[in-house]
Each structure stands twice: as C-alpha cells, then as structure tokens.
C-alpha cells in the first residue's frame, strides 16, 4: 500500500473534524485515511482488471477463461473452481452454466439481465414458500422452470424466467425487500423486511396468477 504522508492525514483529519463537528485523534484520522486508501486501491485494481478483460474480449469476442479461482457465477451464484469459468460480454459464468448456454438450456443474456428471472432461492424467499411446494408447482405447470443440467443430465440450477411465466410472476422490483430503520439505545440499526410486510399482497400482486396459489398469513 502506498505510504500516507502526515500532510495527507492532517488533511483527512481536518475534513473529518469539519464533518463531525468535533476533534478527532491523530490515530483515528490515520486509521480512517488508511482504510479509505485501501478501499480506493481495491476499487482501482478492480477497474484495471476490468479494462484488461475488455481489451482481451476485443481479440476473443466469444470469450475466454479467466485466470484464478473463486469468481461468482452470474447464473447459479456458485464459486468457480480452477479452470472452471468462462468470461464473455455477458459476464462470468461457471463451466456448468456456460455449458447450459451452449446447449441452449438457457439464453446467455440471463447472466447480464438479472432482472429478467428469479432464482429458485428468490422464489422461495420472496413468496415465502418451501422447496416441496415449489417442486409441486413446477410439476403441475404452475411455474415453468429452466433447468441448467450437468452436461445434459441432472439438475445444477433451476431458473424462472419472467417471460416464460408471463401473467404469473410479477416484475422483480415488486417483490424486493426493503430496509427498515430501528433505533435502539440511541443507535440506528437497519434490517431488511420482505415486501409483503409493507403492502396488502393481494392488492399489490393483483392480476398475477401466483397470488391464486399463495395464502396471506397475518403475523
Ligand atoms: Zn454457474
């Protein structure tokens, strides 16, 4: 990490004191300045990596494998193993999900357009249903799922495209949780609460067939 001069720390101390309206110790200012510099270094490194990737993509328009491990797959959310990723204009995918795109089990655009589909977890979480219920809905054709297979076999992930479930699933922005502020012992705390705590679910999702299968439970 680049060294921080005393002038820089003093500058940071002045800004902080002006903002907080009280005196800040040198240690506190130095610590704050260091973590700020650290944050910018991380952001800058990410930006540089991104530029390098974009440049390489011009030479390899179909994509390429990124070095290293532990990238988050934009489709299944899994962490990628050694040699187990693919990067292209839609983003980073694990090898399994990329295979599903090649086999046309799912469109590539899903990686980029996260708003166009619900994951299995999101369906369970946002509509407060359990796995067995969701399975029966799929079996009975209430919801249409796209399956990401392992090379044509089994189930790696199931996705629910809004366009496949038109009139049944609402746009995702209608089912987003919200942050709620709570003041405890003079301190502000935030936690998220599901959308159905803020509206009448039947009214809010009127016209979306999923409501015909949900029960509103008062809490
Ligand atoms: Zn994946």
Plain-language structure description:
The protein has 219 residues and is α+β, with helices and mostly antiparallel strands. Among the domains are: 1-59; 61-112; 172-213, no CATH class. The chain has helices at 6-20, 26-59, 95-102, 120-126, 131-139, 201-204; strands at 85-88, 91-94, 117-119, 146-150, 153-161, 178-184, 187-193. A three-stranded antiparallel beta sheet has the order 3-5-4. Strands 1-2 form a two-stranded antiparallel ribbon. Strands 6-7 form a two-stranded antiparallel ribbon. Helix 1 crosses helix 2. It is flat and about 70 Å long. The N and C termini lie far apart (51 Å). The model has no long low-confidence stretch (mean pLDDT 93). The protein binds zinc ion. Residues 73, 75-76, 78, 93-94, 96-97 line the site of zinc ion (ZN).
Q: Quote the distance from N terminus to C terminus.
A: 51 Å
- Which ions and ligands are bound to the chains? zinc ion
Arithmetic mean of pLDDT:
93
Q: Percent range for helical residues?
A: 25-40%
Could you tell me the radius of gyration in angstroms? 24 Å
Number of helices: 6
* Strand arrangement in the largest pleated sheet: 3-5-4
Tell the overall outline: flat
Give the class from helix and strand content and strand pairing.
alpha+beta
Would you list the SSEs in sequence order as H and E?
A: HHEEHEHHEEEEH
- Number of strand elements: 7
Could you tell me the strand content as a percent range? 15-25%
**Low-pLDDT stretches:** none
Main sheet makeup: 3 strands, antiparallel
């Amino acid at each position: 990490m680049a060294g921080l001069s005393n002038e820089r720390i003093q500058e940071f101390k002045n800004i902080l004191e002006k903002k907080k309206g009280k005196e800040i110790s040198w240690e506190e200012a130095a610590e704050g300045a260091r973590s700020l510099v650290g944050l910018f270094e991380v952001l800058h490194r990410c930006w540089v990596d991104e530029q390098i990737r974009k440049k390489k993509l011009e030479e390899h328009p179909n994509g390429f494998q990124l070095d290293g491990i532990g990238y988050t797959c934009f489709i299944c959310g899994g962490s990628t193993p050694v040699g187990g990723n693919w990067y292209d204009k839609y983003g980073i995918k694990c090898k399994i999900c990329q295979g599903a795109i090649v086999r046309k089990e799912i469109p590539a655009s899903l990686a980029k357009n996260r708003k166009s589909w619900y994951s299995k977890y999101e369906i369970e979480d946002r509509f407060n249903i359990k796995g067995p219920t969701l399975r029966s809905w799929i079996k009975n054709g209430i919801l249409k799922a796209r399956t990401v297979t392992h090379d044509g076999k089994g189930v790696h992930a199931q996705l629910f495209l809004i366009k496949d479930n038109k009139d049944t699933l609402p746009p995702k922005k209608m089912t987003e949780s919200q942050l709620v502020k709570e003041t405890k012992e003079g301190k502000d705390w935030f936690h998220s609460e599901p959308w159905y705590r803020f509206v009448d679910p039947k009214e809010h999702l009127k016209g979306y067939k999923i409501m015909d299968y949900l029960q509103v439970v008062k809490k």
